[in-house]
Every structure is written in structure tokens, then in C-alpha cells.
Amino acid sequence: MTADLVVRNCTVVTPAGRTPDAGVAVEDGTIVAVGRPDSLPDAERVLDAGGNFLVPGIVDGHIHNREPGLEYKEDWESATRAAAAGGVTTVVGMPNTDPVVDRPEHLELKFERGEAKAHVDFQSYAVVTSENLDLIPALDEAGALGYKVFLGSTVGDVPPPSDGEILEAMEKIRETGKRLGFHEENGEIIDHYTERFRAEGRNEPIDHSHSRPVIAEREAIERMITFAEETGAKIHMFHVSSGSGAEAVARGKERGVDVTAETCPHYLWFTEDVMAEKGNVARIQPPIRDEAERERLWNAFEDGAIDCIATDHAPHTDEEKLVDDPFGNTWDAISGFVGLETEVPVMLTFVDEGRLSAEEWVYRHSTRPAQVWGMYPAKGSLQVGTDADFTVVDPDSEWTLDDRTDLHSKNTVTPFEGETFAGKATATVVRGEVVYEDGAVVGESGYGTRVDVDADD
Fold it and tell me: If pLDDT is split at 50, 70 and 90, which confidence band does 101 have?
């Protein structure tokens, strides 16, 4: 047998452990062998991994690719080009686009654009509002990965359903077997403090952060867990920013609720002091918290309350982020920043520092998100017969993001500019095709495809 591709000279890392001096063989886009060099077949192409780690392809279950409708910020091509360069093999797009992904034809449009442009594999959520409860089964049939409710104000101003409508939505979504995720901030709390701060002339970047206090996140998490306990729905908490919020998730798990959660690299890396250092560049919703909440978040992460790592990759233009005046009136700025090319370096830096093992990182950043969203084992594993998605990373490469414009997104504002990391992706393989190597995206736009979903996982 001659395989299409063999990757050699690497340490294979999965949640189960490490296999030094190993490799992977690929035929027709699927894995046909994983093991020692003498167990691997010859191949038409051999990729020397240089002694680095080879891990299951990174799965980012939370990006804003902005297409359709907001392509001036980002589109499927540029977002997935950044994903490939960052070692990410599967991304999931958020539904607050234009049009909003609230009905089957809008979901199909998002999928069609992805099939035409994406470098890596992809999926999308559908939004739930007061206007589309009756369309939940049709959105399921159209192939939505899962569903999302925006509880608090966010980019796109998608209004939340009422609590009664959320209960009804949970009952309908439970029947599909899929999961309902939340932007979990109490909108009334946020609106109250935002109006008060603006009236008082409090307009510094930290004021935006403090207008969205931890209690707004914790209350929303606890309320949705209570609703899920009543309905039996599977739920997910996106971008958990605080230890208080993560601890609420843990309590829900202890009660037997099927609640999963993600946090983002920026919440584990920065404290709210970054607002004084980088201003509105670091403005995001929910905001980056103080040191005490970050340590509580880390503790909850280590205890298993947080299932997944994702980025909330959210590109905006320099003008929208007030880059030329980063400490200007925060109410004139917009929230969000890019993250697809820094998520692997951030997490590898934590591995280097001993905050978590490489095996645990792989579990949280690949295997577990694939499981949570019904893509496992096709994604998030290195099992024979599954998609040949994997990421080669150099865990020892120390480097600094000196110039954000070297990133591959259409817009590149990030508070990680100037930060130093230990580790980076060196090659990205999607279904057996090398899409990134030697510092360049080499895959073709349109190669990526929509991921099939198994809601029973």
C-alpha cells in the first residue's frame, strides 16, 4: 500500500497520552495508520514534522466570520485563511450576520458561501429569537450545528426572546437532540449600568468593562441552567469570562444538568489591567475580568467546569476599534478582536508554564469541542477511519507578535500584539490536505466543507 500522505518524525499527542517517534498515514482524506515509523506505509508525499507535536486538528467552536453581509470586517475566505495559519482545522460561525441566520434559507446562504470560499472545514449556529420559534425544526433539517440565544446586548443587536419563549425553545431544541448555547449576560443589568455610566460621563475603556459586572454573567448562567433542568435541554455557555460564572456551571453539572461551557484565551491570559494598557483595543463582551476572577476561572478550568477553549474571534476595522485613539470615548468603540492565530500559541504557552499538560490542552481544544457539538470522532480524534485533520505544533518556539498586520484576517486588531509566546503551529492538515506549512497558507479557497453533525454525541 502507498498512502497519499505520511507525516513522520513527531510525537503524537492525544488526551490519552504521547507517542514519541511516531507518525500518521492518510489515504483518501482519512487516517489509515497511526504509530511507529516501521508501521507506516510508503507515501506519495512525506511531511517531516521536525520532531514536533502532532495533535488532532484544533476545533474552534466560536468565531464571527461576518459573512454574509459584513464582509468589510471579515469573510469565510479570510477567516479560514487565518484559521489555517493558526493550526485550526474546523471553525463554527456565529449567526449575528446580515441577514441574521434565523431561518433555513439564511443558513443555506451561509453554508453556500463557506463551500465556495473556506480553507478549512466549517459549520454554523442558528439564532433563536421571538420571531422564529416555529422554525427550529426546519433549521435542524437544514443542518444547523446548534442554536444560540443572545441574552445581553451584543454586536448586531439581536434581541433576546422572553424567558417563556426560551423555555419553549428549549423544549423544541431538546427534540432535535442538538445543543442551545447562550451569550450569557443579563441584559437588564447591563443596560442599567451602561445608561448610568454614560449619564455620569464615565467613558473610559474600564467603564465599559464595569458596566457589564460579573453578576450579569453569573445570573444568566444560573437562570439558563434552571430552565434546562426543567426542560431537559442540552445547553452551552459561550465565552465564560469569570470564575464566578464557571463555578455556576460547575454547580449545574453537579445537579445533573447537561450544561457545557467554553472560555477564551484572553480571559485566561489578561486581567482587566489590560484596559489601562491597551484601551479599547481590548474591549470585548463579556469583558476581561480582574485578577481574582481570573484565578477563580483558572481553578474552575482545572477542576473541569470549563469543557472547551474557543476564541470568540471577532474582527472589526481599526476605525471601529478606535485604534488611533484607543483611550477615547469607549461608547464610541465596538467590542471584539481577532484570535484565530493566537489561540494555539497562548495555550501552548500555558503548557510551557505548567498550567496544564499538553494532553489536557488537546482535550479542551480539539476532542471536547468536537464532542460537545456532535462532530466527534470525525473531528477531534486521531482514530483510524476518521477525517485526517491534524495540527503540527512546535512547543519550544519562542516568539513575539510584533506586528499584527502579519496576521491573515481582513482586520487584525488584537490585544495580543506585543505579547510573547512559547509555541506555535507549523503545519495544518485538513482531510489529508496540507493547508498551511513553512509560514504560508498553501491550501485552496473552497477546499473546506460543511461538517456533518451527529446530535447524539
Answer: very high
Q: Given phi > 0 = left and psi -120 to 50 = alpha, else beta, which region is 93? A: beta
CATH topology match: 2-54+384-396+422-441 vs 58-372: no
Residue 303 pLDDT level (bands cut at 50, 70, 90): very high
For 16-46, how does the pLDDT look when each residue is reduced to its tens digit (9 = 90+)? 999 999 999 999 999 999 999 999 999 999 9
Please report the pLDDT score of residue 62 as a whole number.
Answer: 98
Cβ(179)–Cβ(234) below 8 Å: yes
Query: Which CATH number does the domain 58-372 belong to among 2.60.40.10, 3.40.50.2300, 1.10.3720.10, 3.20.20.140?
Result: 3.20.20.140
Cα→Cα distances 38→13, 50, 94, 96, Å: 19, 17, 44, 50
Specify the pTM.
0.97
57: cell is 486538528
**Residue 206, SS3 per DSSP:** helix
Q: In the CATH scheme, what architecture does the domain 2-54+384-396+422-441 have?
A: Roll (2.30)
Mean pLDDT of the chain: 97
The residue ranges of DSSP E strands in 130-257, in sequence order, are 147-150, 179-183, 234-237
Burial bucket for residue 433 (CB in 10 Å: 0-12, 13-18, 19+)? buried
Cα-based distances in Å from 170 to 140, 147, 175, 433: 13, 10, 9, 39
Sketch the domain layout of the chain as residue ranges. Answer: 2-54+384-396+422-441, 58-372
Give Cβ neighbours of residue 80 (< 8 Å, ≥ 6 apart).
65, 91, 117, 118, 119, 120, 122, 448
Q: Over the stretch 244-299, which tens digit does the pLDDT of each residue have?
A: 999 999 999 999 999 999 999 999 999 999 999 999 999 999 999 999 999 999 99
